[in-house]
Amino acid sequence: MNDFPSIKDELQPRPKLKRHTETPTSDEEIEANSVAIGKKWGAATSLPAADPVVMPPFVPAPMPPAPKPPALPPGPEWARVISIRGYIPHYLDDELALKAVQRRVTKTFLIMEALAKAGYHVEEIDMVQDRRRRQKGI
Questions:
Q1: C-alpha to C-alpha distances, 100 to 43, 84, 108, 113, 129, nearest whole angstrom
Q2: Domain map of the chain by residue range?
Q3: Which of 7-21, 54-68, 78-92 has the lowest mean pLDDT?
Q4: Which of 43, 56, 67, 115 fits 120 for a cystine, CB–CB 3.0-4.6 Å?
Q5: Dihedral sign of CA atoms 18, 21, 27, 33 in order
Q6: What is the per-residue pLDDT for 61?
Q7: How far, in whole angstroms, is CA 70 from its chain's centroid?
């Protein structure tokens, strides 16, 4: 006893679509066919055709030159940076990450801050809280 519906229809190949090999239909023929279908079904097929509007080409007005920003006085420069790599315990990395998020600084900033507190020479300008605000390599 089979309670499932037949799947014979599902296994049949899809019918091939007819390719149109005749010459393309003109716009007038399409318009006439659309009107005939619209009359048959009582529907408006399109708005009445209007004369095409010819727009002159867009020519943008010339832009005045942008004013030059005032020159900033030279300030102190950051020290050149290098990348270091080392290994620390996972729990220490977790604690650094948590404190960095709480203070909204980077782990690098926390390490440099600790080094400065331990007596290492760290210039104030190099204490960057968020390194994305600084260009690398300078």
A1: 67, 19, 9, 12, 9
A2: 90-133
A3: 7-21
A4: 115
A5: negative
A6: 85
A7: 33
What is the C-alpha to C-alpha distance for residues 131 and 123, in angstroms, rounded to an integer?
15
Two tokens at 78? 């950051």
pTM comes to: 0.42
- 126/79 Cα distance (integer angstroms): 7
Instruction: Encode pLDDT of 25-68 as tens digits.
Output: 788 888 888 888 888 887 766 655 556 667 788 888 888 888 88
* pLDDT for the residue numbered 138: 46
Contact 28, 35 (CB under 8 A): no
- Distance, in Å, from the CA atom of 107 to the CA atom of 115, rounded to the nearest integer, reads 12
Residues 6+ apart with CB under 8 A from 29: none
